[in-house]
Structure formats: C-alpha cells, structure tokens
Write a structure and sequence with these properties.
This protein is α/β, with parallel strands linked by helices and 494 residues long. The chain has helices spanning 7-15, 60-72, 83-95, 110-118, 142-151, 172-181, 218-221, 246-256, 263-282, 284-299, 337-346, 370-386, 417-422, 460-472; strands at 20-22, 76-80, 101-105, 122-126, 158-161, 168-169, 186-189, 213-216, 229-233, 306-307, 320-321, 325-329, 350-352, 354-355, 359-363, 425-429, 442-444, 449-452, 476-477, 486-490. A 7-stranded mixed β-sheet has the order 2-9-8-7-5-3-4, sandwiched between helices. Strands 10-12-15-14 form a 4-stranded antiparallel β-sheet. The relative contact order is 0.14.
C-alpha cells in the first residue's frame, strides 16, 4: 500500500476540504468550539499507577463516574468505550435471563437484536406509530405497551428507543409507570439524547421520566470522540432499590467492554461532560438553542420541502421533538431522500447524517459553528425555492401500501432470531423471497433498524419496500450477499 492510500492520509486530505459535518460526532471537528485536547499518542496509556482500572474502579475513574452520575441524575453511571452497543447488550443480559422473553419496540437499533440473539431470547414487538405525509416513524403508544404486557405475562423486561434517529420522543413517563406496575425494568436506548440534560429547549431525558436503564452515545451529540457512550441506572423501586440487578450489569460490562479500555476515549467522555456543564453555566447551550429555534422558524416556511416540527407533539404517539435534529421531508417535492442528500453534498458541500426514502436528517450540536448552521439554512431554502421537475415525481416511492413508515409495518414472526440464523438456510433470489422466512437481517444503515429480522416472514409489502430502496440507491445492508441479489431463508420455508 502506498502512503497516500493510508487511511490517516485520506482523513488528512478530507480535513482540508470544505465539507461541513452535519453528522456525528458532536464535536464537529471543533468547527464551533475550542477544544484543548492533546495529541492522543502523548496521553495513550494503560492501567498504570495512579490511573485506576475501568473494570475495577477504585480511584479517579470511580470518582469521575460518580461525578457524571450526579450531573445526569442517575444512581449509577458507567463510561463505555465500546459505544452504546455494549451498554445495550449489558442491560439486556442483566435484565432478562437466558431464553427469557423481552418486549421491544420494533424500531430499535440492530444492537438490540444482537442482544436478543446472543441471549437466546424470545422477542415480542410493539410498533411505532406512523407520521402521515412525512415518511418518518412516530412514537410508541403507552397503551400498546400496556396491552402487550397484559397479553403476555411471561415478558421480563421492556426496551424501547427514545428519541429516534430523527428526534422523535415517546411518552417515557407513562410507559415507565405501566412497566413498573408490572414489576419490570424499563430500558431506554437514548443514544441520540445525551444532550437532553443540558438545555431547557430539549426534551427531558428518560432518566428524569422513570426509566431504569438509559444508554446514551456521548459521541453523537456531545464534543466527544467516536465510540464513547454512557450507561445510567436509576433506583426506581418504591423501596429504593433497582428493577435491574446492578451487579449483573457490572458483570456483563466486563464481558462486552474491551479489557484494554482506551484512556483517550475515557478522557474524551469526561471532558465532553465537563465542557457541556460549563457551556450550560456560561449560557452557550442557551445560545445554541436560540440559534436553532431561529433557523427552524425560517425553515418552517419551506414548501414543498417540509421541516419536521414540534407541532407534531400530541400526534402519532409523539410526546416531544428534539429541535437539534433538522429533519426535512421531501414528500410531494419530486425528490427522494437520496436525491436531496446528494444535492446537499455535491452542490453545497454539506454532509448529512442520513437519508431515508423520503427525508434527510442533519445532526446539529454545540460543536457547530454559526457559519455552518447558516450554510445549512441557506442551502435548504435555496433548494426549496428552485422547485423540481414534475417528471421526477415517479421516483417518489411509497414506504409500503397503506403506511407512511416502513417501521410501522407489522412483521409476522415465525421463529426466534437464533433459530433462523443458526438453523438450516438456503440462498434464493431476493426477488423471489416473498412468503419465505428470512435467515438474515435487512436494514438501511444508518439508521440500522431492521426492515426484516431473522425469523420474520418476508411479505410482499416489505419485499417491495426493500426493492424500492435498492432502486433508489439507499444503503441497504445486512445481507451476506453484498450484490443484494440473493437472501438466506430458513429451509422450513422452501
């Protein structure tokens, strides 16, 4: 390999471009903030004297995590250097015994499904609502959770995602009350909500609303390095105890976390929390919120593009909306999400976080500069003003007949995820797979939410959605055949 082909050289070259990051990590390459972080090689150490041990904290790391816990209002907080994934895996493993049963919101990240697979669990699903006309997922209805628990008394824990990738927040408080009434723990994947605790205009964190375990990716919206996250546990039982076994959580963290945790990453977690606390005290978070509200007011006038706004609260299971997510629907514009994504990248040099079939999502954070936010505002207004040829309307696909959001389409589970993956499978053409039981995942990444999970029936409706996504050039992944021509299915469905 030539030197110029090395990844570090490619990164250095990319850094010199004027591409602006409306994607994670939240430090935004320090575009809008000053970070006094040293050369990582100069502070990259192992567990030497005076620097504690993450897997057996007794000194500075123990005190640091205790301090973080006090800021977030938890009873226990752990630093995660394997991302939110290891936090989710640890919480699932601690909450549900081997071969147990868990109620899961169907719009969870693939890491949750991996936890179900690893622990041989049976999953029962509750589905998000659909937001009419926008092509995005809504919230989880408390009554759907309640009905599922009444219907199946063998469920041993509940896990949901809030906020979604697009900043949609469910009524966590009401759901927590229902789950606790059943004597069960509520785990919330709040990966996209690490910033909630720092601003008045942001939604309240699930920690404040009764969740027992909350997992947050600090690298997504805080000024921290990629791969950093937090796991919080709160003592919510009436007797002051916890619905989760904290000792089990710690045990599984030692399994799912690296035995050689990076001090650079741990320092980055701590530093990002410290900075956000300082920014809050200094009014910088309030300034960021004000700038967002100003931009959103202007973008709210777009037509035919449409900004996902807070007026959705009270509809489609939506309790709140995170204003830091700039989500723009292209429904009715003649564009697809992928087309708008590419226009922003190629013409305006703005890199979005993700696109769906009918929308794009930009992640904003305190790390954004005023100039960067202005570039996004100006670009979207310019694109909206240009108008789009009516001939492109045919490219505007549907998320599935009768549904505005693919994740709201109820799947038919025929066997467990483990049975489907580890059982006998056969490879068949994807186009001929309707009616078969999938032996692998199908998802677009990001957001990494399965369109089809192993063990589910591939319906005509879902197959058409997948084929439509492939035609539109969306990043369809999960299939072992990277050409996307074939899929593994359970032999019992052949």
């Amino acid at each position: 390999m030539k030197k110029e082909e090395l990844l570090i050289e490619r990164l250095k070259k990319y850094r010199r471009l004027d591409m602006y990051p409306f994607h994670m990590p939240g430090h935004k390459r320090a575009e809008g903030i000053k970070l006094s972080f040293p050369d990582p090689f100069s502070v990259d150490i192992t567990e030497i004297d005076g620097f504690d041990n993450l897997h057996h904290p007794e000194g500075i790391l123990k005190e640091s995590m205790k301090w973080a816990s006090s800021l977030y209002g938890s009873d226990h907080t752990w630093y995660l250097v394997n991302g939110s994934t290891c936090g989710l895996l640890s919480a699932i493993s601690a909450a549900v015994p081997h071969r147990g049963k868990i109620l899961v919101s169907r719009n969870c990240h693939k890491a949750v499904y991996h936890g179900i697979y690893l622990n041989h669990l049976e999953a029962v699903y509750v589905y998000p609502q659909s937001v009419p006309g926008l092509g995005i997922q809504g919230g989880i209805l408390p009554e759907d959770v309640e009905n599922a628990l009444k219907k199946d008394p063998d469920i041993q824990a509940v896990l949901m995602v809030s906020p979604t990738y697009d900043g949609i927040v469910s009524d966590v408080k009401a759901i927590a009350e229902i789950v606790h009434k059943a004597g069960l723990p509520l785990i919330v994947d709040e990966a996209h909500g690490a910033h909630f605790a720092y601003g008045d205009a942001f939604p309240k964190s699930a920690l404040e609303l009764g969740a027992d375990a909350v997992i947050q990716s600090v690298h997504k919206t805080l000024p921290s390095l990629t791969q950093t996250a937090l796991l919080h546990v709160k003592n919510n039982r009436p007797d002051g105890g916890c619905y989760l076994d904290v000792k089990k959580v710690e045990r599984y963290l030692q399994i799912y976390q690296s035995s050689s945790p990076s001090y650079v990453l741990m320092a980055s977690i701590e530093n990002s929390i410290f900075l956000m606390d300082q920014y809050r005290k200094e009014g910088k978070v309030a300034e960021f919120e004000a700038a967002l509200l100003k931009i959103r007011k202007k973008l709210g006038k777009m037509k035919p593009l449409r900004l996902v706004e807070r007026d959705l609260r009270g509809t489609a299971g939506i309790f709140d909306v995170d204003i830091s997510k700039i989500v723009v629907s292209v429904r009715g514009s003649g564009l697809t999400g992928e087309m708008l994504f590419q226009i922003l990248r190629e013409k305006y040099h703005l890199e979005m976080e993700m696109c769906g079939a009918d929308y794009v999502t930009a992640i904003t954070a305190v790390g954004d500069s005023k100039a960067g936010l202005e570039r996004l505002r100006a670009a979207l207004l310019a694109i909206d003003k240009e108008g789009f040829p009516s001939g492109k309307m045919e490219l505007q696909g549907r998320e599935g007949a009768g549904s505005d959001c693919v994740y709201a389409i109820e799947a038919k589970t025929r066997c467990s995820i483990r049975e489907a993956i580890d059982g006998k499978t056969a490879r068949i053409p994807l186009r001929e797979s309707a009616g078969k039981i999938s032996g692998e995942f199908v998802y677009i990444y990001p957001p990494g939410i399965p369109l089809i999970a192993p063990g589910e029936c591939i319906t005509e409706q879902l197959l058409e959605v997948i084929l439509d996504y492939i035609r539109k050039g969306l990043p369809v992944q999960g299939l072992s055949d990277q050409t996307l021509e074939t899929i593994l299915v359970s032999e019992q469905a052949i």
